[in-house]
Amino acid sequence: MSINTLTDWVSQNASLLLGATGQTVYMVAVSGLIGFLIGIPLGVILHTSKKGGLLENVRLNQILGAIVNIGRSVPFLVLMVAIIPLTKLLVGTFIGTTAAIVPLTIGAIPFVARLIENALLEVPSGLVEAAQAMGAKPFQIITKVLLPEALPTILNAVTITLVTLVSYSAMAGTVGGGGLGDVAIRYGFYRYDLVIMVVTVIMLIILVQIIQSIGDSIVRRVDHR
């Protein structure tokens, strides 16, 4: 490919690729935010309601655990198709970037919940017992002991979730979800444009690397262990 040809290709496809990248970031950011707002409390409940936990409720733990396991076991492509009626009910359509946020969020919630539960398991039980001995209430223990002590692991879980959502958002492109995945399917696959396909893959890799690098940097700053 000559320089002139390359210049022409960039001028023709730059806006398409930049727009698709913006759509991917939008989907990942919104679904990640909602997923964290629901998934983190759910993970805390899973941890504290288990047998011997701060707020022991074995029955609740079993029900929530089963729901989370079901949510994690459903392949994302199947999930997108299965909840089309819900997606259409919530946003009025099942095609486009905003519509893709619904399955992305539902896919993220159980994923986040298990990661948070595992993060809280790493907090030494001695710290919790010491807080209880000093008369701390369960809510105080959760907010002042469990979450602060598990913060580095929680932030790492956030990074893992965002990276996973990038791959999920690419899959959403197979059903008209928009973003880089949609460009790869419509232009790279259906139109047999290998260059578009390769460029979208590279841009997805760069996006993942940026998220991972920022996440690792933040974890290093807050981890004083």
UniProtKB/TrEMBL annotation:
It is found in: Cell membrane. It holds the Pfam family BPD_transp_1. The keyword Coiled coil does not apply. InterPro entries: AA_ABC_Transporter_Permease, MetI-like, MetI-like_sf. GO terms for cellular component: plasma membrane. Residues 21-213 form the ABC transmembrane type-1 domain. Coiled coil: none annotated. Its main location: membrane. The chain crosses the membrane at residues 25-48, 60-84, 90-113, 150-170, 190-211. This is D-methionine transport system permease protein MetI. The gene is metI.
